[in-house]
Amino acid sequence: MTLSVVIPVYNSQETLEPLVEKLQDCLSAISFEVVLVNDGSRDNSEAVVYRLADRYNNVQGLSLRRNFGEFNAVLCGLTYAKGDYAVLIDDDFQNPPEAILTLLERAQSGHFDVVYSRYAQKKHAWFRNVGSSLLNYLTTYLLDKPKSLYLSSFKLINRPVVQEIVSYTGPFPYIDALIFRVTRNVTSVEVPHHPRQSGASNYTLSKLVALFLNVLFGFSTVPLRLFAGLGLGLFGLSLLLGLVLLLGSSLQWFLVSGWVVVAWVVLLLTGLQMVFLAVMSEYLGKLFLAQSGLKPFVVKEKEGANGLS
């Protein structure tokens, strides 16, 4: 099978059936499947998912026991996907189904592991656009993402990378972070972005904040090291200040009052405490990453009986 179309479903009873029908039409020239994952929808989406799975022999219908979140639903869909490539697409028609072939062609012609979509003009609400921009800046430094690459939810991933992604066993998956733990062989192509056809966006401000915190603390030890740098800076500043106070008092350059000494002691102890906390946090960070279930290395290709080539 060439392609698996993975769709996380949440409160999309109005758009889901036309979307699957459109996919059947647009992708008829290739062998493909559609993996629908109902993420605890509150409307009739679950029944629509099962109805579509009964109607089409290339549609899988899955339903989670509760709402786990978009990335958890995507991880579930990737786990059940069978195609050589998997494409992630929203359930609201903002990602045009016909653009899937553009991503697939780019991946096959350039031998890329992942192809992201990029938009000339996004049709999201303003706060989501702002949140996406902040998230892209954040992931550039935390995940070592190329600055020019926009991390869109509409993307295509090849089978080897999918297999590595689904090995993640933690409760808070972030698909883009898992991708960049595996590969840097990524690119992007421009595709249209349409207004939402029905209902309101499921991305609320609180969900964007939760995603921001998940990326910040869930896949990197950079925040720990920033505090370590701050602690070392304060400690160094306190030592320098102590030297200045000692020389100034000894050479009678100025009179050292009691509150200055107290301030110096507080600064010194604060710096020491932050250094000790940074050391402990570094150990905890290493333990956290070790328990994340991610592999220490990923082999791209193996040839022959005795080695790699």
TrEMBL record:
Keywords associated with the record: Cell membrane, Glycosyltransferase, Lipopolysaccharide biosynthesis, Membrane, Transferase, Transmembrane, Transmembrane helix
GO terms, molecular function: undecaprenyl-phosphate 4-deoxy-4-formamido-L-arabinose transferase activity
Membrane-crossing segments per the record: 226-247, 253-279
CDD domains tied to this protein: DPM1_like_bac (cd04187)
GO aspect biological process, one term: lipopolysaccharide biosynthetic process
Gene Ontology CC terms: plasma membrane
SUPFAM superfamilies xrefs: Nucleotide-diphospho-sugar transferases
Glycosyltransferase 2-like domain residues: 4-165
UniProt name for this protein: Glycosyltransferase
The species this protein was found in: Rudanella paleaurantiibacter
